[in-house]
Protein backbone atom coordinates (compact mmCIF):
# COMPACT_ATOMS: atom_id res chain seq x y z
CA UNK A 1 0.00 0.00 0.00
CA UNK A 2 1.36 3.41 -0.95
CA UNK A 3 2.25 5.66 1.93
CA UNK A 4 2.42 9.45 1.79
CA UNK A 5 5.83 10.96 2.38
CA UNK A 6 5.97 12.60 5.79
CA UNK A 7 6.30 16.36 5.46
CA UNK A 8 9.30 18.19 6.93
CA UNK A 9 8.78 19.46 10.47
CA UNK A 10 10.35 22.19 12.56
CA UNK A 11 13.13 21.37 15.01
CA UNK A 12 10.69 21.20 17.91
CA UNK A 13 9.47 17.66 18.50
CA UNK A 14 6.14 17.15 16.72
CA UNK A 15 3.66 14.92 18.60
CA UNK A 16 1.68 14.22 15.45
CA UNK A 17 4.85 13.04 13.74
CA UNK A 18 5.56 10.74 16.68
CA UNK A 19 2.06 9.30 16.35
CA UNK A 20 2.74 8.80 12.65
CA UNK A 21 5.78 6.70 13.48
CA UNK A 22 3.66 4.52 15.78
CA UNK A 23 1.19 4.06 12.92
CA UNK A 24 4.00 3.07 10.53
CA UNK A 25 5.23 0.44 12.95
CA UNK A 26 1.73 -0.89 13.35
CA UNK A 27 1.25 -1.16 9.58
CA UNK A 28 4.65 -2.68 8.80
CA UNK A 29 5.29 -4.63 11.98
CA UNK A 30 5.21 -7.98 10.20
CA UNK A 31 6.52 -6.88 6.82
CA UNK A 32 9.75 -8.49 5.64
CA UNK A 33 12.99 -6.52 5.71
CA UNK A 34 13.13 -5.74 2.01
CA UNK A 35 9.51 -4.56 2.13
CA UNK A 36 10.25 -2.19 5.01
CA UNK A 37 13.24 -0.74 3.19
CA UNK A 38 11.34 -0.44 -0.10
CA UNK A 39 8.50 1.45 1.56
CA UNK A 40 10.95 3.78 3.27
CA UNK A 41 12.97 4.46 0.14
CA UNK A 42 10.15 4.75 -2.38
CA UNK A 43 7.26 6.19 -0.38
CA UNK A 44 7.87 7.39 3.15
CA UNK A 45 11.24 9.07 2.59
CA UNK A 46 11.57 9.04 -1.18
CA UNK A 47 14.71 10.92 -2.18
CA UNK A 48 15.41 11.81 1.44
CA UNK A 49 17.00 8.64 2.79
CA UNK A 50 20.59 7.52 3.33
CA UNK A 51 22.21 4.34 4.63
CA UNK A 52 24.90 4.17 7.31
CA UNK A 53 26.95 0.97 7.27
CA UNK A 54 29.91 -0.21 9.31
CA UNK A 55 30.77 -2.83 6.66
CA UNK A 56 31.09 -5.20 9.59
CA UNK A 57 30.25 -8.85 10.14
CA UNK A 58 26.55 -8.60 9.24
CA UNK A 59 26.61 -5.59 6.91
CA UNK A 60 26.32 -7.67 3.75
CA UNK A 61 22.71 -8.51 4.63
CA UNK A 62 21.53 -4.90 4.86
CA UNK A 63 23.56 -3.86 1.82
CA UNK A 64 22.09 -6.75 -0.19
CA UNK A 65 18.65 -5.33 0.63
CA UNK A 66 19.84 -1.91 -0.52
CA UNK A 67 21.08 -3.40 -3.80
CA UNK A 68 17.65 -4.96 -4.39
CA UNK A 69 15.68 -1.80 -3.58
CA UNK A 70 17.96 0.85 -5.11
CA UNK A 71 21.73 0.37 -5.59
CA UNK A 72 22.06 4.14 -6.01
CA UNK A 73 20.92 4.90 -2.45
CA UNK A 74 23.70 6.86 -0.73
CA UNK A 75 25.67 4.62 1.65
CA UNK A 76 27.99 6.23 4.20
CA UNK A 77 30.91 4.42 5.80
CA UNK A 78 32.65 6.02 8.77
CA UNK A 79 36.31 5.63 7.93
CA UNK A 80 37.64 6.38 11.39
CA UNK A 81 41.28 5.68 10.57
CA UNK A 82 41.19 2.86 13.13
CA UNK A 83 39.58 0.05 11.11
CA UNK A 84 41.05 -3.37 10.45
CA UNK A 85 42.72 -3.62 7.07
CA UNK A 86 40.29 -6.47 6.38
CA UNK A 87 37.33 -4.12 6.85
CA UNK A 88 38.67 -1.64 4.30
CA UNK A 89 39.17 -4.47 1.84
CA UNK A 90 35.65 -5.73 2.59
CA UNK A 91 34.19 -2.35 1.61
CA UNK A 92 35.57 -2.79 -1.89
CA UNK A 93 34.49 -6.45 -2.02
CA UNK A 94 30.85 -5.64 -1.20
CA UNK A 95 30.70 -2.63 -3.52
CA UNK A 96 31.78 -4.81 -6.41
CA UNK A 97 29.74 -7.89 -5.47
CA UNK A 98 26.49 -6.00 -4.86
CA UNK A 99 26.84 -3.32 -7.50
CA UNK A 100 26.57 -0.44 -5.05
CA UNK A 101 27.33 2.77 -6.91
CA UNK A 102 26.95 5.48 -4.27
CA UNK A 103 29.23 4.57 -1.33
CA UNK A 104 30.97 7.42 0.49
CA UNK A 105 33.70 7.29 3.16
CA UNK A 106 33.43 9.86 5.94
CA UNK A 107 36.70 10.83 7.60
CA UNK A 108 37.23 12.66 10.90
CA UNK A 109 38.37 16.26 10.76
CA UNK A 110 42.16 16.19 10.67
CA UNK A 111 42.39 19.25 12.91
CA UNK A 112 40.17 17.58 15.52
CA UNK A 113 42.34 14.47 15.45
CA UNK A 114 45.49 16.55 15.73
CA UNK A 115 44.06 18.54 18.59
CA UNK A 116 42.38 15.84 20.65
CA UNK A 117 44.19 12.64 19.66
CA UNK A 118 47.70 13.65 18.59
CA UNK A 119 49.27 10.34 19.65
CA UNK A 120 46.42 8.14 18.35
CA UNK A 121 45.70 6.46 21.69
CA UNK A 122 42.60 8.38 22.79
CA UNK A 123 40.60 5.16 22.31
CA UNK A 124 42.50 3.66 25.24
CA UNK A 125 41.95 6.44 27.75
CA UNK A 126 38.68 8.00 26.59
CA UNK A 127 36.78 5.84 24.06
CA UNK A 128 33.67 8.02 24.20
CA UNK A 129 35.64 11.06 23.08
CA UNK A 130 37.43 9.01 20.43
CA UNK A 131 34.07 7.91 19.00
CA UNK A 132 32.84 11.48 19.17
CA UNK A 133 35.55 12.95 16.97
CA UNK A 134 35.85 9.96 14.65
CA UNK A 135 32.18 9.01 14.21
CA UNK A 136 29.60 11.41 15.63
CA UNK A 137 31.19 14.62 14.40
CA UNK A 138 31.78 13.45 10.79
CA UNK A 139 28.29 11.95 10.53
CA UNK A 140 26.24 14.84 11.91
CA UNK A 141 26.60 17.14 8.86
CA UNK A 142 25.51 14.24 6.65
CA UNK A 143 22.38 13.38 8.63
CA UNK A 144 21.36 17.03 8.48
CA UNK A 145 20.89 16.57 4.72
CA UNK A 146 18.34 13.76 5.00
CA UNK A 147 14.96 13.21 6.58
CA UNK A 148 15.91 9.68 7.60
CA UNK A 149 18.62 7.06 7.55
CA UNK A 150 18.86 3.28 7.56
CA UNK A 151 20.75 1.19 10.11
CA UNK A 152 21.55 -2.50 10.39
CA UNK A 153 20.69 -2.82 14.09
CA UNK A 154 18.83 -5.87 15.35
CA UNK A 155 16.92 -6.74 18.50
CA UNK A 156 19.01 -9.77 19.39
CA UNK A 157 22.30 -7.88 19.59
CA UNK A 158 21.91 -6.36 23.07
CA UNK A 159 19.21 -6.17 25.71
CA UNK A 160 18.92 -2.43 25.08
CA UNK A 161 17.97 -3.16 21.47
CA UNK A 162 15.41 -5.75 22.53
CA UNK A 163 12.44 -3.50 21.73
CA UNK A 164 13.87 -1.98 18.56
CA UNK A 165 11.09 -1.13 16.02
CA UNK A 166 11.29 -0.87 12.25
CA UNK A 167 10.84 2.91 12.43
CA UNK A 168 12.11 5.31 15.08
CA UNK A 169 11.64 9.04 15.53
CA UNK A 170 14.90 10.48 16.78
CA UNK A 171 15.17 13.47 19.09
CA UNK A 172 15.86 15.72 16.09
CA UNK A 173 12.66 14.57 14.30
CA UNK A 174 14.36 12.38 11.75
CA UNK A 175 13.24 8.85 10.96
CA UNK A 176 15.60 6.00 11.60
CA UNK A 177 14.74 2.85 9.64
CA UNK A 178 15.78 -0.57 10.98
CA UNK A 179 14.76 -3.19 8.35
CA UNK A 180 16.61 -5.99 10.18
CA UNK A 181 15.17 -5.20 13.61
CA UNK A 182 13.41 -8.58 13.92
CA UNK A 183 16.20 -10.70 12.43
CA UNK A 184 17.76 -13.28 14.74
CA UNK A 185 21.39 -14.32 14.62
CA UNK A 186 20.31 -17.48 12.80
CA UNK A 187 18.29 -15.38 10.31
CA UNK A 188 21.34 -13.30 9.50
CA UNK A 189 23.60 -16.29 8.94
CA UNK A 190 21.01 -18.14 6.86
CA UNK A 191 20.38 -15.04 4.72
CA UNK A 192 24.07 -14.82 3.93
CA UNK A 193 24.12 -18.48 2.92
CA UNK A 194 20.93 -18.28 0.86
CA UNK A 195 22.20 -15.33 -1.15
CA UNK A 196 25.84 -16.35 -1.38
CA UNK A 197 27.08 -13.18 0.27
CA UNK A 198 30.82 -12.79 0.87
CA UNK A 199 31.77 -13.05 4.54
CA UNK A 200 33.83 -10.50 6.38
CA UNK A 201 37.36 -11.95 6.51
CA UNK A 202 37.44 -11.71 10.33
CA UNK A 203 34.09 -13.39 10.98
CA UNK A 204 35.49 -16.92 10.79
CA UNK A 205 38.16 -15.92 13.31
CA UNK A 206 35.56 -15.23 16.00
CA UNK A 207 34.82 -11.54 15.42
CA UNK A 208 31.02 -11.45 15.49
CA UNK A 209 30.62 -7.65 15.70
CA UNK A 210 33.36 -5.64 14.05
CA UNK A 211 34.19 -2.01 14.65
CA UNK A 212 37.49 -0.20 15.03
CA UNK A 213 40.44 -2.52 15.53
CA UNK A 214 41.60 -1.27 18.95
CA UNK A 215 38.12 -1.65 20.46
CA UNK A 216 37.09 -4.99 18.91
CA UNK A 217 37.95 -8.46 20.21
CA UNK A 218 37.03 -12.06 19.53
CA UNK A 219 33.72 -13.29 20.96
CA UNK A 220 33.61 -16.63 22.77
CA UNK A 221 31.00 -19.28 22.05
CA UNK A 222 27.72 -18.36 23.75
CA UNK A 223 28.67 -14.74 24.37
CA UNK A 224 26.59 -11.77 23.28
CA UNK A 225 27.67 -11.03 19.67
CA UNK A 226 28.61 -7.50 20.73
CA UNK A 227 30.56 -8.60 23.79
CA UNK A 228 33.74 -8.03 21.85
CA UNK A 229 33.05 -4.32 21.43
CA UNK A 230 34.71 -2.13 24.07
CA UNK A 231 35.28 -5.22 26.20
CA UNK A 232 35.63 -4.45 29.89
CA UNK A 233 34.21 -0.95 29.57
CA UNK A 234 30.79 0.39 30.45
CA UNK A 235 30.17 1.27 26.83
CA UNK A 236 27.71 -0.28 24.41
CA UNK A 237 27.37 2.15 21.52
CA UNK A 238 29.61 4.56 19.65
CA UNK A 239 27.22 7.46 20.14
CA UNK A 240 25.59 7.80 16.71
CA UNK A 241 22.47 5.82 17.71
CA UNK A 242 19.66 6.96 19.95
CA UNK A 243 16.81 4.52 20.39
CA UNK A 244 13.34 5.70 21.20
CA UNK A 245 13.66 4.20 24.70
CA UNK A 246 16.67 6.45 25.34
CA UNK A 247 18.74 3.64 26.83
CA UNK A 248 21.48 3.28 24.26
CA UNK A 249 23.16 6.62 23.76
CA UNK A 250 22.63 10.33 23.95
CA UNK A 251 20.80 11.80 20.95
CA UNK A 252 22.86 13.16 18.11
CA UNK A 253 23.08 16.93 18.12
CA UNK A 254 22.58 17.42 14.41
CA UNK A 255 19.49 19.56 14.91
CA UNK A 256 20.71 21.12 18.14
CA UNK A 257 21.44 24.82 18.02
CA UNK A 258 25.21 24.93 18.41
CA UNK A 259 26.50 27.82 20.51
CA UNK A 260 30.25 27.72 19.78
CA UNK A 261 31.29 30.15 17.04
CA UNK A 262 34.72 29.36 15.64
CA UNK A 263 36.39 29.66 12.25
CA UNK A 264 33.40 31.42 10.76
CA UNK A 265 30.62 29.02 11.78
CA UNK A 266 28.62 27.64 14.67
CA UNK A 267 30.01 24.17 15.37
CA UNK A 268 29.52 21.31 17.81
CA UNK A 269 31.38 21.98 21.04
CA UNK A 270 33.43 19.04 22.36
CA UNK A 271 33.74 20.70 25.76
CA UNK A 272 31.20 20.39 28.57
CA UNK A 273 30.62 22.60 31.58
CA UNK A 274 32.54 21.82 34.75
CA UNK A 275 30.25 20.35 37.41
CA UNK A 276 30.61 20.15 41.17
CA UNK A 277 32.08 16.80 42.08
CA UNK A 278 34.04 16.36 38.85
CA UNK A 279 37.35 14.59 39.41
CA UNK A 280 40.21 16.67 37.96
CA UNK A 281 42.27 13.50 37.55
CA UNK A 282 39.79 11.76 35.23
CA UNK A 283 37.50 14.32 33.54
CA UNK A 284 37.77 15.00 29.84
CA UNK A 285 36.68 17.85 27.56
CA UNK A 286 36.01 20.18 30.48
CA UNK A 287 37.36 23.59 31.41
CA UNK A 288 38.91 23.15 34.84
CA UNK A 289 38.46 26.26 37.03
CA UNK A 290 41.80 27.88 37.78
CA UNK A 291 41.34 27.45 41.53
CA UNK A 292 40.68 23.73 41.07
CA UNK A 293 43.70 23.38 38.82
CA UNK A 294 45.99 25.11 41.30
CA UNK A 295 44.73 22.89 44.11
CA UNK A 296 45.09 19.71 42.02
CA UNK A 297 47.92 20.63 39.67
CA UNK A 298 49.66 17.24 39.65
CA UNK A 299 46.40 15.36 39.04
CA UNK A 300 45.40 17.64 36.16
CA UNK A 301 48.81 17.46 34.53
CA UNK A 302 48.73 13.66 34.78
CA UNK A 303 45.18 13.45 33.38
CA UNK A 304 45.54 11.96 29.87
CA UNK A 305 42.34 13.52 28.48
CA UNK A 306 41.89 16.79 26.58
CA UNK A 307 41.19 19.60 29.05
CA UNK A 308 40.63 23.34 29.14
CA UNK A 309 41.17 26.01 31.78
CA UNK A 310 38.40 28.30 33.08
CA UNK A 311 39.27 31.88 34.07
CA UNK A 312 36.78 34.05 35.96
CA UNK A 313 37.15 37.71 37.01
CA UNK A 314 39.72 38.03 39.74
CA UNK A 315 41.80 35.03 38.63
CA UNK A 316 45.49 35.60 37.96
CA UNK A 317 46.48 33.88 34.73
CA UNK A 318 50.10 34.28 35.81
CA UNK A 319 49.51 31.61 38.46
CA UNK A 320 49.25 28.99 35.68
CA UNK A 321 51.83 30.52 33.34
CA UNK A 322 54.16 27.50 33.38
CA UNK A 323 51.36 25.06 32.49
CA UNK A 324 49.29 26.92 29.90
CA UNK A 325 50.46 24.58 27.14
CA UNK A 326 48.68 21.71 28.92
CA UNK A 327 45.30 23.10 27.92
CA UNK A 328 43.67 22.80 24.50
CA UNK A 329 41.35 25.68 25.30
CA UNK A 330 41.16 28.53 27.79
CA UNK A 331 37.67 29.89 28.51
CA UNK A 332 37.43 33.41 29.92
CA UNK A 333 34.14 34.31 31.55
CA UNK A 334 32.36 37.63 31.09
CA UNK A 335 29.74 37.67 33.86
CA UNK A 336 28.34 41.01 32.71
CA UNK A 337 28.58 43.35 29.74
CA UNK A 338 30.30 45.98 31.88
CA UNK A 339 33.00 43.66 33.23
CA UNK A 340 36.01 44.10 30.96
CA UNK A 341 38.67 42.24 32.92
CA UNK A 342 38.54 39.32 30.50
CA UNK A 343 39.95 41.48 27.68
CA UNK A 344 43.14 41.98 29.65
CA UNK A 345 43.47 38.29 30.39
CA UNK A 346 43.18 37.42 26.69
CA UNK A 347 45.83 39.97 25.74
CA UNK A 348 48.16 38.60 28.38
CA UNK A 349 47.65 35.09 27.03
CA UNK A 350 48.19 36.01 23.39
CA UNK A 351 50.90 38.66 23.72
CA UNK A 352 52.85 38.03 26.91
CA UNK A 353 52.52 34.27 27.36
CA UNK A 354 52.41 33.30 23.68
CA UNK A 355 49.43 30.99 24.11
CA UNK A 356 48.46 29.71 20.66
CA UNK A 357 45.50 27.41 21.28
CA UNK A 358 41.83 28.29 21.58
CA UNK A 359 40.90 31.35 23.64
CA UNK A 360 37.16 31.40 24.04
CA UNK A 361 34.78 33.98 25.51
CA UNK A 362 31.86 32.68 27.55
CA UNK A 363 29.08 34.29 29.58
CA UNK A 364 27.62 37.62 28.54
CA UNK A 365 28.95 37.67 24.94
CA UNK A 366 27.16 40.20 22.73
CA UNK A 367 27.71 41.44 19.19
CA UNK A 368 29.16 44.81 20.24
CA UNK A 369 31.85 43.03 22.24
CA UNK A 370 33.02 40.46 19.71
CA UNK A 371 35.07 42.81 17.47
CA UNK A 372 36.88 44.04 20.60
CA UNK A 373 37.34 40.50 21.85
CA UNK A 374 38.88 39.48 18.55
CA UNK A 375 41.35 42.35 18.77
CA UNK A 376 42.43 41.07 22.17
CA UNK A 377 43.10 37.51 21.01
CA UNK A 378 39.81 35.66 21.36
CA UNK A 379 39.23 33.17 18.54
CA UNK A 380 36.12 31.33 19.79
CA UNK A 381 32.87 32.55 21.31
CA UNK A 382 30.02 30.78 23.10
CA UNK A 383 26.96 32.75 22.03
CA UNK A 384 23.39 32.22 23.24
CA UNK A 385 22.04 35.71 22.56
CA UNK A 386 19.88 35.27 19.46
CA UNK A 387 20.48 38.71 17.83
CA UNK A 388 24.21 38.17 18.25
CA UNK A 389 23.93 34.71 16.69
CA UNK A 390 22.20 36.17 13.66
CA UNK A 391 24.73 38.98 13.37
CA UNK A 392 27.55 36.44 13.29
CA UNK A 393 25.78 34.24 10.76
CA UNK A 394 25.01 37.22 8.52
CA UNK A 395 28.49 38.75 9.00
CA UNK A 396 27.18 42.13 10.13
CA UNK A 397 29.09 42.81 13.32
CA UNK A 398 29.96 46.45 14.03
CA UNK A 399 33.35 47.56 12.77
CA UNK A 400 36.09 49.11 14.89
CA UNK A 401 37.84 51.72 12.79
CA UNK A 402 39.37 54.08 15.37
CA UNK A 403 41.86 52.89 17.97
CA UNK A 404 42.50 54.96 21.07
CA UNK A 405 44.16 51.98 22.74
CA UNK A 406 45.89 50.14 19.88
CA UNK A 407 46.70 46.44 19.94
CA UNK A 408 49.98 45.20 18.49
CA UNK A 409 51.84 47.24 15.88
CA UNK A 410 49.25 47.39 13.11
CA UNK A 411 46.61 49.55 14.81
CA UNK A 412 47.24 53.29 14.83
CA UNK A 413 45.88 55.55 17.62
CA UNK A 414 43.37 58.13 16.41
CA UNK A 415 44.89 61.56 15.89
CA UNK A 416 48.49 60.39 15.43
CA UNK A 417 50.72 60.34 12.35
CA UNK A 418 51.13 56.70 11.20
CA UNK A 419 54.49 57.33 9.52
CA UNK A 420 56.00 58.35 12.85
CA UNK A 421 54.87 55.22 14.64
CA UNK A 422 57.54 52.57 15.13
CA UNK A 423 57.38 48.97 16.20
CA UNK A 424 58.73 48.39 19.70
TrEMBL record:
Xref: InterPro entries: PAPS/APS_Rdtase (IPR004511), PAPS_reduct_dom (IPR002500), Rossmann-like_a/b/a_fold (IPR014729), UCP030820 (IPR008318)
Catalytic residue list: 238 (nucleophile)
Binding note for cofactor: Binds 1 [4Fe-4S] cluster per subunit.
Keyword line: Cytoplasm, Iron, Iron-sulfur, Metal-binding, Oxidoreductase
SUPFAM superfamilies (alphabetical): Adenine nucleotide alpha hydrolases-like (SSF52402)
Main localization of the protein described in the UniProt heading: cytoplasm
Limits of the Phosphoadenosine phosphosulphate reductase domain: 49-217
Coiled coil residues, start to end: none
Cellular compartments annotated: Cytoplasm
Gene Ontology MF term list: phosphoadenylyl-sulfate reductase (thioredoxin) activity
Cofactor: [4Fe-4S] cluster
Family: Belongs to the PAPS reductase family. CysH subfamily.
The protein, known as: Adenosine 5'-phosphosulfate reductase
Organism: Devosia neptuniae
